[in-house]
Design goal:
Elements: H1 10-22, E1 25-30, E2 60-61, E3 67-79, E4 82-87, E5 92-94, E6 98-101, E7 104-105
Antiparallel strand pairs: 1-3, 1-6, 2-3, 3-4, 4-5, 6-7
Length: about 110
């Protein structure tokens, strides 16, 4: 069962947009979905599970059990009331699952 989306702080959304605009490499730690999958490479709605092209080989797991993705953010968008970011390799991450970006803690609340 998919958890309801929790909006992120507007200031954090702005930071993601700035990172995308500046094309900076990012390290994003996030909570993988309940099935243990992390990231996906399609642009359909979902909770962060893999789509047609498996991205799991590009996602690591850190010592805390969080999924870790690295790359440039190419899009921050909303679909069906849920916000996502897409990395240049096609990995898609739901914004309310992000724990930190470049070491900076990420909080959900707006």
């Amino acid at each position: 069962m998919t958890e309801p989306y929790r909006p992120i702080a507007c200031s954090l959304h702005d930071e993601l947009e700035a990172l995308a605009t500046l094309r900076h490499e990012c390290e994003i730690r996030f909570v993988a979905d309940h099935e243990g999958e992390a990231g996906r490479s399609d642009a359909t709605e979902g909770t962060g599970t893999t789509g047609e092209s498996d991205t799991s080989e590009r996602i690591e797991t850190d010592d805390s059990g969080y999924a870790v993705a690295r790359g440039r953010i190419v899009d921050v968008y909303s679909r069906g009331g849920t916000e996502y970011l897409r990395l240049e390799d096609g990995t898609v991450i739901r914004l309310d699952r992000i724990v930190s970006v470049n070491g900076k803690p990420f909080q959900t609340m707006c």
